[in-house]
Each structure stands twice: as C-alpha cells, then as structure tokens.
C-alpha cells in the first residue's frame, strides 16, 4: 500500500514538472530570443501569446527547395481556408516568401483564443533554411500592427 502511494506521488510530481516545461528563451535561426512577459513557449521552436504564435521547422536547403510547397498544400487542403495574398517579408535579416490565409473557423491557441490569420513562409535566415508558420488574432497588414517580438519574425518590405 505504501509503495503504491509513493509511486502515485512520484508520477504526480513528474507530471507537474513536465507540464511546466515553459522555456525562458527560444532559438530562431541561430538567434536566442528571450520569451517576454505575456508570451510562453513549450519548445525551443515556438513562441505564443494571446495575439500571436510563431513556430518554425529547420530543413536542409535541398529539402526546402524540393518540398516547401507541401507546407502550403497542408493549409490549402482545408475547405475553411481562403488564400488572401502572397507575402514577402524580412525575418531577422532573412528574406522569406509565403502566403497569408484567412481561417474561417479559426485555430484555437492559448486558452482557446481563436486566431483567424495564418502566414506560412519559407526561406533562409542566418544561413538556416526553414519553414515559418505564424498565426495572428488580427489581420497582419503592416509593420505597425506588430509588437517588438513579432518584428523579430516578420517585417514587411
């Protein structure tokens, strides 16, 4: 009986430790970015708040060139998605190309906040080929729509 109780306590504390795996910084294309107040990160490759989420995937240059279209097809395969426009922007000094989408029913992020805008883009940032996916609560039209953290990921040309 005592062993079962101790085992249950052990698993409870382990679950608590892993559930609170909130990163203090993220690494975006060889740049360390501190996670500001009102933001959170459950991995080194994403950061989110109640108005913005960014996540990225590193690829080899060959894989990026041969397969970037797959990431657009995944988003465009959903019937509730509308392509708004093609976008080109600067991301921490690198040039990215992508598409902006409107998500009719939205995507739930952080405390069930619904984000209706998504940008999927590809390119090379600091010699690192990557795919960047960003979700926005409001339509990202111009640089003045972005806070300081967002501007590390996207600045329209």
How would you describe the overall organization of this protein?
The chain is α+β, with helices and mostly antiparallel strands and 157 residues long. It has helices spanning 2-19, 61-76, 150-153; strands at 25-28, 31-34, 46-48, 52-58, 81-91, 94-109, 113-125, 128-136, 155-156. It is 24% helix and 44% strand. A seven-stranded antiparallel sheet has the order 3-4-8-7-6-5-9. Strands 1-2 form a two-stranded antiparallel sheet. The longest helix has 18 residues, at 2-19. Residues 4-20 have low confidence and may be disordered.
| Average pLDDT, all residues | 86
Strands of the largest sheet, in order across it?
3-4-8-7-6-5-9
The number of E-state strands comes to 9
What is the helix fraction of residues, given as a range? 10-25%
Report the portion of residues in β strands: 35-45%
Shape: globular
- What is the third-level CATH name, the topology? Protein Transport Mog1p, Chain A
CATH class group:
Alpha Beta
Please outline the major beta sheet: 7 strands, antiparallel
What is the total number of structural domains? 1
Radius of gyration: 18 Å
> Whole-Å distance between the termini?
66 Å
Query: What is the string of SSEs from the N terminus onward?
Result: HEEEEHEEEEHE
Tell me the structural class: alpha+beta
């Amino acid at each position: 009986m005592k062993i079962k109780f101790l085992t249950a306590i052990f698993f409870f504390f382990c679950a608590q430790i892993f559930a609170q795996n909130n990163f203090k910084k993220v690494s975006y294309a060889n740049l360390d970015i501190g996670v500001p107040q009102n933001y959170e990160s459950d991995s080194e490759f994403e950061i989110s708040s109640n108005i913005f989420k960014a996540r990225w995937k590193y690829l080899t240059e060959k894989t990026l060139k041969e397969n970037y279209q797959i990431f657009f097809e995944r988003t465009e395969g959903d019937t509730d998605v509308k392509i708004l426009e093609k976008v080109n922007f600067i991301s921490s000094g690198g040039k990215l190309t992508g598409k902006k989408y409107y998500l009719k029913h939205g995507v739930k992020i952080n405390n069930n906040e619904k984000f209706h805008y998504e940008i999927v883009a590809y390119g090379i940032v600091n010699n690192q080929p990557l795919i960047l996916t960003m979700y926005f609560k409001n339509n990202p039209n111009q640089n003045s729509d972005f806070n300081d953290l967002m501007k590390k990921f996207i600045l329209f040309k």
